[in-house]
What does this fold into?
Amino acid sequence: MQNRWIRFSLAFALVLGLMAVTSASAAPKLRLGAASNNGGMIVFAGVDRGIFAKHGIDAKVEVRNTGAQLTKSLKAGQIDFAPAAFTNLPAALERGIKVRGVVGYVGGSFSKPTTDGMVGIAVRPGRGINSIADLKGKKVGATFGSTGDLYLRTVLAKSGITKGKYSRVNVRPPSIVSLFDSGGVDAMVAWEPYLTRMTDKVKGAKLISRGGDHVCFCAGMHGVPDTVYKDKAVTQAFVDGMAEAAAWVRDPKNTDAVVKIGVRYVRGVSPALFKRTIKYWTYDPRLGENTFKAFRFSVKQLIAQKKMKRPYDPAKYFDLQFISKTIKDHPEWFKDLK
It folds into this structure.
């Protein structure tokens, strides 16, 4: 009798084990793109803390250096959801790229159409630059097509310094600090942690501008329609995971844990630097009317730069049904936000 009970117990345990393995293998897999900077923290934390897994998603992070690389990987089918800044995205949409934005990645565009505290302009010592006006005739480094580039153009234009009155040098993100350090430019527009790292590295370097509500350093996560709508329950679970992960990242009591995760993904950044610069970033996954305003501002700039021919309706890109449901179902993840 006892042997029969033992055999029954072992068989039952085996069945449970097989069920668990089957359940785990059945979890939908998502490859989530993220940029190699502080902005990727929602995705990094969502994977590392098991938050996506909690929502039934087997998620993996795919890190790329630039937005262009992320878009290329998305189009190639190497990534299921990728972040895209509003800066150049409208031009790609006008050219025919088929994607739908479903949740915020970085920035606070739900509350207001500008978020740029994480970006600024640093200047080298001995170049006679003490204000924005002094950039006239100077060589300024920028990652062409980035939100930092839009920030530079906007800030200078407001001071009457138009294109042609200064020299722009295209700099890839991994080279921002080294080019500034070597003296290859007089000034550099950059986002954190590069911005603070530059002023730390070059003695006498200083910031002449940070933030100021000039642009929206904002991005959303998007996917191709086949991915977004193939299984709307999976997309909803993904958006829920993004929202819960963002709430975890924003919670001050988690700062040390956030830093520990962040330095694993953002190469060459010390825990101390990451901790000093994380405060400048905004992690709000909500999307709304102010997001549309930020998008339209970028469209206007792109038309002025002759990169677009006509306005583009943001409603054709953003699909708010998923994040709207998340906000309704889980207000606790947003209680700290305005």
